[in-house]
Give the backbone structure.
Amino acid sequence: VSDNGFNGLTVLDVSQVQARTPLPTVPVVSRLSWPQVSIPQNATPFTRNGHRYVLETDEFGGGAAIGAARIIDVQNIKKPFVVSNLRLAVNAAKAQGADLEADPGNDQQFQGYQGHYCSLPSRVDPTVIACSFILSGLRVFDIRHVAHPREIAYFNKPLKPGAGSTPTKAGSFA
């Protein structure tokens, strides 16, 4: 969440709120950002083998800072760190350039290939994460090894007949 120019993960101590303390304070425990941060959208806590993580999803952005997802280790809430990223090849810095700029699907006004929502089937020992990537469809990642997620499946709805080559008019958003 953007807070005075900060974009990333903010860990707050809400124990006074949970204890129903009158006029509680909510101090910042830690903050974390990452090189490709765009606009952090949501964070879902989960555990793998008893270890605590957060699945964080960004959205929007542009270039190599395009929205995508990542797995953050929060076992030590005072020192969270990014374990791995869930990004498509089109989101990588090496894919940026004239070819991508000429790609009609990379229309930043209509979100292009950006990540949007990711979800887990369970918050305890999930083995997959599913993410929508706007014009790149639904992507499924194997996270049995959280440091090395890999894409294992995808579905990208075809363009509607007669819609021309404009994906946004064809309704192919994930």
